[in-house]
Fold F-box domain-containing protein.
Amino acid sequence: MRNSTNTSKQGITATGRQLNMFLQLPTELIQNIAYLLPTNADRINFAQCSSDLAAKILPAESHIWRRLFRDTYDEIMRLSVVDYKIEYQIRTIVLARPVDFKYGQKEKQTYWLELLRDMIREGLGQDESSEVPKTFSCLREALFNTEFLNRPVSGYMMRKPDPPSDLFCAVQLALTYLALDPSMHVRCLRTDYDIGAVYALPETEKELIDVDFELSMDVALDIRNFWLRHLLNPDEGTFHISYMNLPKYHRPARPSPMGLILGDEKRKLPLSWLGYESCICPHPPEVSELEVRQTCADLNGHIVEVEHITLQLEEHPDPGNWPDLFEKYVSEFRGRHDDKCTFFRGIQTYHGSGGDRSAPVRGFIENTYGDRIRGCWSRITFVTYESSHWQGEHGALGSYFSEPWPPMDLHDDFTSIYAYSGVVIPGSSLMVGHWWDPWADEDTGDKGPFIFWCI
């Protein structure tokens, strides 16, 4: 027994000597060993071998935290060495525990949304020439198969939920590219949006962009959720087959990095877009009717085939591209800051099995007003039309714009004209909004929702 005890003591003594020798290694080398361990649990166990070892590995000044952070997330400018530990630990803990919004947005949900918002802004703030932002990959992993994308409403288990916060709507909208990825398995419900707001019915008293130029985030989310339901859900029998038949590279992609400035710079205009628009005829329907039938894309009316739409645009800096006539009938609330607007023109094409149909496009994109959440969003407004003064065949982009300009009368100078107004989500990767007939009465004329994304 005595020999056994002595052997045990000798083993402990030898282990202690080995640990002391290990602790004599340079601190930087010990931190590097901890960094190379495969998991955070391994690093914790390693640090718990002794208090001296923990003192070398765990302090906020340890370079291990910055290396771990930069391996997982995009670099954050002006972040101190000490802050890397805090940021890394917060994200590791918070992202591992998705929250739900069954009973609305409380303190826990707000903290979680603020983290997602900041991560989205970090991804958008990366240099435009950089690779895919790591932050977007982390968000995809954290949100896979979660209720946040699957039930994109706040308080869905409450009898009378509060309106969703701007923060909730902004984060949801910014993640639309993820929600529209079929591999994310999102299944939005009809109860997850206000169908009256989707079709801009007069009785809803809700506008996407109001007379004060303020963006209604909840209306934008209603439109987005309508498209989630009808593009992703085969039970609707509307746009799903057309959407799923699109090549993968023609579906929504992640947002594009915008550089470090997300504020008041002139909006950059992506040139190629693809998407859909919806109508319900006759218009306007009763809200109760829309609870049964929500779009003519069910092929039970005048639409015999669901067509996807492309926009091919080019910047056209002349403000005369948007004449006073359009200002009067289409967008009377545009801010008169032409230096903040990007004017454009282009071609809209409907693609169907029977051939393509095209029409010219003229419009502008500009900043929206708002706080830090809404400050880097853009408003886009454009018209598609057929001129009464065209001569001959039209095909090339330039040949569509040979008519006398500017037009003087909405009825005499056009054989048809449709207006579009929407919001471009940060990263300029996707837009949602309403289209309408400016010839018709505001309350009774044809109108509906649209969605386009960059390709």
User: Anything to note?
Assistant: Residues 1-12, 260-264 have pLDDT under 50 and may be disordered.
